[in-house]
Structures are given as C-alpha cells and as structure tokens.
Amino acid sequence: MNAIIEQDRYYPCSHGKVSNMTREADVAIVGGGVVGQLLALALSDRGRTVLLLDAGPACPPASWAGGGILSALFPWRYPDPLTALTLDACTRYQVLARRILAVEGPDPEILTCGMHVEAGDEMAAALSWAERYAISAEPASDSPLGAEGVVSFPTIAAIRNPRLLKGLATLLAAEHVAVQRPVTVVGMDAVAGRWRLETSAGVVVAQQVALSAGAWSAGLLASRGLQMPLMPVKGEMLLYGPQVPAPPHILLAREGYVIPRADGHMLVGSTVQPGLMDHRLTDEAGRFLENVAARLWPPLVGQIPLAQWAGIRPGSSRSWPIMGELPGGPGLFVATGHYRNGLVSAPASAELLADLMCGRTPSLDPEPYSVSSSSPP
Predict the structure, then answer these.
(1) Please, what is the average pLDDT of the chain?
(2) What SS3 state is found at 236?
(3) CB 253 within 8 A of CB 145
(4) What are the two backbone dihedrals, phi and then psi, of residue 361, each rounded to the nearest 5 degrees?
(5) Helices assigned H by DSSP within 175-305
(6) Which end of the chain is more exposed for a tag (fewer CB within 10 A), N or C?
(7) Which string of b and e fits 176-190 if b means at least 16 CB within 10 Å?
(8) Mean pLDDT value of segment 319-340
(9) Backbone dihedral region of 202: left (phi > 0), alpha (psi from -120 to 50 degrees) or beta?
(10) DSSP 69
(11) Alpha carbon separation from 332 to 36, 136, 292, 310 (Å, rounded)
C-alpha cells in the first residue's frame, strides 16, 4: 500500500517560532484540530489576542483522519443539542472556504454530492426528522445500497478535511494569530487571576485557557483533578484511487461508508475501537474495510487501496459535545467529546465557545453543552 497522498498528510505550516520564553495572550488554546483552529479564528475576529498551542504530528487531531461528511451519521438518532450544531455546517464552511482562498490557502474542496443512507425500518423516523428540520430527504428508489429502505439526503456535502486544516493554518497566519507547534502542555495553574501554563517551549500566561485537545483533553483535565466521561476511540480508514468511477453520492450503511471526492478518489471507513489510543494500523481493520468497500460500491472489488490510516476520536458517554467553563476554574474552558461529529459541528461549536469566553450571549442555549449537563432538554 502506498503512502498517503501528499495533499492529505498532516503537517500544517508552522508559524510562531517555538522558543523557551514566557509568552502572554488574552487566550491560550490547547489543541490544533478543527475546533481549536476555528476557535482561535473566532476569538481573533472578536478582537482577542490568541496563542494556539498544538502538539503537532505526535498527537494528530481526529479531524485530520475522519471522512469529512458534513452530517452526523444516521442523523435522526441524535438528540437536539447535536443537531443544532450541525444544521448549517455546509454554509459555514462555504464562507470559511472563501476566506481561505482569499489568502491563497488550499481549497477545502466542499463537494455537495448528497448522501444515501441505509435506513431499513428507520425510514419513517429518518423522514420525520428531516421534515422537522426542513432538510431535503426522500426515499431513494434507485440506489447502490438497494431498492428499499434507503433514504436520500440530496443536500449533504463532504469536505476534504486535511486540506481544510492546512487552509485554516494558512488563514490563521494571514490573520496574525500566533501558533506554536509542536508544543505540549505539562501543567496549568491559576496565579493571581491569570492562567500559567508550563509547556515544552516555555511558559504561557493568559487570562483564559480553552482545552480543545480532542482525546488528549482527558489527561489535561485529570491534571486539574477533573474527571469527565471521555474515552479515546480509535478508527481506521482506507483511501482508493480513481481507477474506477466513484459513486455519485456518499453511501452510508450500518457497517461503514464510501465517500467520493472531487478528484475521483474514494474514502472508505471506518472502524470503531473504544479505549484504544494508538495509530498503529492493523490487517484486520484493512480487511474489514475492504469488505465494506466491496459491499457498498462493487466497482471497488479487487481494487488495491492507496493508503490506510488511523485516528483517535474524542469519545464521550453522551452523544453531544462538552463545552463551556469548568467548575471551580474561572477562565478555564473546554471543548471536547465531539466523537464522530467534530467536523460537522466544529463551526457552531467554535462560535458558541467564543461567545461564552467573550461574555456574549450565544445564539444557541449553552446549558445542554455544559459540563454539568447530563441529558438533553
């Protein structure tokens, strides 16, 4: 199997020289995935000085490794707080893509191809959910997934997430948002009304801190004596080349999905392995995903994948993310637990948390996402 194609490698450009000195900012953000970068941009847009601390390729974000579907998988199964974060994701990313292209960053390649979902006996629930939220949906009478029990969501899009992360890094540089990479945080303390972070590159002092380090957030929180219902969930993916035609739509079934790209490549995913926090690839996962590919899109039978990779999702015991100020820690905020919905919910998540950190009233009720909330309204 060949290496990951160049445009999908994870090494966003680094700006802000790493040095062993004390740095100050209004806000320090820990974690350089899509939520952390979008939060940095949102706070900068609100006039805050921001320092983004990214561990880099040693702890690559789940938002690099995922498929980039701008919808929750089987979206009707999720509670309202998750749905509220996802409804306008495509529109938000289209606006963001224009900003990235304006500073000559890479095109995130948003592809509005629609999604066919194997709903089975949940067809009525799927259509009812779509009607409730004014989302276009209808039974698909002619689908690669079968003649019955398949629902079509024609407006669902996918984004090429590795290019999105690189584009965000380019945009942050253009907006003069400071980034240090690779940097690890080894300790946090509240000192005289400010936060003092000990890092591998020196000391950072900030009025506020936001932890958005995905699956690695749990360790940072534990260092503050805070236990949250978080767990790592490993997932592996395959990439196929354009030797055979890609499906016209995203194909989603119980065992996995096939995602077409604008350039004809196809992603096949993904495995779900709770409790694992390593990026080692397994033959078992590769065989499973090849079977998924063959079942969902028969032209892939016998084709050799170009690449296989793994990512670590920030899983949680609840099905919507944890966001807000931490109890007993004024000025310390968290955004984690997005699990498989980080890409689709990131723009709204970043806006909500940025508003809270700036003392503004968010457009969404923040209470369901708070650390203390255990059930959706």
Answers:
(1) 93
(2) strand
(3) yes
(4) -85, 115
(5) 217-222, 283-296
(6) C
(7) ebbbbbbbbbeebee
(8) 93
(9) left
(10) B
(11) 14, 40, 42, 30
Helix (H) or strand (E) holding 91: helix 89-102
What single DSSP character describes residue 143? Answer: B
Q: What does the alpha-carbon distance between residue 169 and residue 167 come to, in Å, rounded to a whole number?
A: 5
Full 3-state SS string of the chain: CCCCCHHHCCCCCCCCCCCCCCEEEEEEEECCCHHHHHHHHHHHHCCCCEEEECCHHHCCCHHHHCCCECCCCCHHHCCHHHHHHHCCHHHHHHHHHHHHHHCCCCCCCCECCCEEEECHHHHHHHHHHHHHCCCCCEECCCECCECCCEEEECCCCECCHHHHHHHHHHHHHHCCCEEECCCCEEEEEEECCEEEEEECCEEEEEEEEEECCHHHHHHHHHCCCCCCCEEEEEEEEEEECCCCCCCCCEEEECCEEEEECCCCCEEEECCCEECCCCCCCCHHHHHHHHHHHHHHCHHHCCCCCCEEEEEEEEEECCCCCEEEECCCCCCEEEEECCCCCHHHHHHHHHHHHHHHHCCCCCCCCCHHHCCCCCCCC
- Inter-helix orientation angle 89-102/342-357, to 10°: 80
CB 308 within 8 A of CB 237: yes
pLDDT in tens, 125-175: 999 999 999 999 999 988 999 989 999 999 999 999 999 999 999 999 999
Tokens of 169: 């890094």
How is residue 373 written in tokens?
Answer: 């909330």
How far, in Å, CA of 92 to CA of 348, rounded? 8
Q: Are 304 and 1 in contact (CB under 8 A)?
A: yes
**Structural tokens at position 363:** 């457009």
Q: Is the pTM of this model over 0.70?
A: yes
Q: Confirm if 373 and 106 have CB atoms less than 8 A apart.
A: no
356 is written with which tokens? 């809270």
Mean pLDDT, residues 209-216 taken together:
94
**What local confidence, expressed as pLDDT, does residue 12 receive?**
57
CA distance 66 to 57: 15
Burial of 132 (0-12, 13-18, 19+ CB in 10 A): exposed
